[in-house]
């Protein structure tokens, strides 16, 4: 049953996710791209996590931070993409009321957690390059524990009201979500009540969390760039720029994809509805697929650790 009767009339008990409203007959072809990307993202992150867990030389704070990032990527992938593929392949569009808001909570919490992890990793690189003598005493295992607690508590407390506010709305009419996921506004606009507070809180929380992270990350890389330029050793400067440059590109890609999604959503009817929906899905898939490759495989110690594991097992 989709609707149940109560004292106020009908009440939604589950939602139907239809993904792309204007592409119902052809949207399943997107799985040709999404499925391999999912396999790549999960495979690369699991290999990275396994290598960091098994190889003793990788038991260092900077790699623990990378493990946190990989764990967040895996959770985000598994929260969104399998359900999208089930819709494409088996037309399994229904999702329970509680399941929808659980998905909304995970997405709204773990994406800012990933942003905060990028911030802590940028600080790690800042200390390593700008204050190398202080690095062993500043970036310790206790620092990673404190950073993890900060990442979880900050984003959990700041984003929890978003799904709570949405779940307390009265859903008494349509239960069809014109999106591939239970995004806050896509769900809230199905209610019979006023959703101004929902929109306002999401806007403020997103810009406060992700906006502050982005400013501090860019500031960290500005200090890094200035320190690298001043280094007398050209080889060391080139290596630092190569490493930090690839990291910064990935961080900017993460935020750019998010900003494009936000602004295309704001444009409303000027942009086809399929565009923000697709960007929302890709934002939960492309960064998780690229992060372990750029942060992990391109790092000499991790590459050696993975090779060591392969030689040991085969």
From TrEMBL:
<dbReference type="Pfam" id="PF13853">
    <property type="entry name" value="7tm_4"/>
</dbReference>
<dbReference type="InterPro" id="IPR017452">
    <property type="entry name" value="GPCR_Rhodpsn_7TM"/>
</dbReference>
<keyword id="KW-0297">G-protein coupled receptor</keyword>
<feature type="transmembrane region" description="Helical">
    <location>
        <begin position="29"/>
        <end position="51"/>
    </location>
</feature>
<keyword id="KW-0552">Olfaction</keyword>
<keyword id="KW-0675">Receptor</keyword>
<keyword id="KW-0807">Transducer</keyword>
<dbReference type="GO" id="GO:0005886">
    <property type="term" value="C:plasma membrane"/>
</dbReference>
<dbReference type="InterPro" id="IPR000725">
    <property type="entry name" value="Olfact_rcpt"/>
</dbReference>
<dbReference type="GO" id="GO:0004930">
    <property type="term" value="F:G protein-coupled receptor activity"/>
</dbReference>
<feature type="domain" description="G-protein coupled receptors family 1 profile">
    <location>
        <begin position="44"/>
        <end position="295"/>
    </location>
</feature>
<protein>
    <submittedName>
        <fullName>Olfactory receptor 56A4-like</fullName>
    </submittedName>
</protein>
<dbReference type="GO" id="GO:0004984">
    <property type="term" value="F:olfactory receptor activity"/>
</dbReference>
<keyword id="KW-0472">Membrane</keyword>
<dbReference type="GO" id="GO:0071396">
    <property type="term" value="P:cellular response to lipid"/>
</dbReference>
<comment type="function">
    <text>Putative odorant or sperm cell receptor.</text>
</comment>
<dbReference type="InterPro" id="IPR000276">
    <property type="entry name" value="GPCR_Rhodpsn"/>
</dbReference>
<feature type="transmembrane region" description="Helical">
    <location>
        <begin position="63"/>
        <end position="89"/>
    </location>
</feature>
<keyword id="KW-0812">Transmembrane</keyword>
<dbReference type="InterPro" id="IPR050402">
    <property type="entry name" value="OR51/52/56-like"/>
</dbReference>
<feature type="transmembrane region" description="Helical">
    <location>
        <begin position="204"/>
        <end position="228"/>
    </location>
</feature>
<keyword id="KW-0716">Sensory transduction</keyword>
<feature type="transmembrane region" description="Helical">
    <location>
        <begin position="240"/>
        <end position="263"/>
    </location>
</feature>
<keyword id="KW-1133">Transmembrane helix</keyword>
């Amino acid at each position: 049953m989709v609707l149940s009767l109560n004292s106020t009339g009908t009440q939604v008990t589950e939602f139907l996710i239809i993904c792309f409203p204007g592409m119902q007959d052809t949207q399943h072809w997107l799985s040709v791209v999404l499925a391999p990307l999912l396999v790549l993202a999960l495979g690369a992150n699991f290999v990275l996590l396994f290598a960091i867990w098994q190889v003793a030389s990788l038991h260092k704070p900077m790699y623990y931070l990378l493990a946190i990032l990989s764990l967040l990527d895996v959770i985000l992938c598994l929260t969104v993409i399998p359900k999208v593929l089930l819709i494409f392949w088996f037309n399994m569009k229904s999702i329970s009321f509680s399941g929808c808001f659980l998905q909304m909570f995970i997405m709204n919490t773990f994406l800012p957690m990933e942003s905060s992890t990028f911030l802590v990793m940028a600080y790690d690189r800042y200390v390593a390059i700008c204050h190398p003598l202080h690095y062993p005493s500043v970036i310790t295992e206790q620092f990673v524990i404190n950073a993890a607690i900060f990442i979880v508590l900050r984003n959990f407390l700041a984003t929890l009201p978003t799904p709570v506010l949405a779940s307390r709305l009265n859903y008494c009419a349509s239960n069809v979500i014109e999106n591939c996921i239970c995004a806050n506004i896509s769900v809230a606009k199905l209610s019979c009540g006023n959703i101004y507070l929902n929109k306002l809180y999401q806007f403020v929380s997103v810009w406060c969390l992700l906006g502050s992270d982005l400013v501090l990350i860019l500031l960290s890389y500005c200090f890094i760039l200035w320190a690298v330029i001043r280094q007398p050793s050209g080889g060391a400067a080139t290596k630092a720029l190569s490493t930090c440059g690839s990291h910064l590109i990935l961080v900017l890609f993460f935020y750019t994809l998010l900003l494009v999604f936000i602004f295309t959503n704001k444009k409303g009817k000027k942009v086809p509805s399929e565009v923000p929906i697709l960007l929302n899905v890709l934002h939960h898939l492309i960064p998780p697929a690229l992060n372990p490759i750029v942060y992990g495989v391109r790092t000499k110690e991790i590459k050696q650790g993975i090779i060591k594991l392969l030689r040991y097992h085969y």
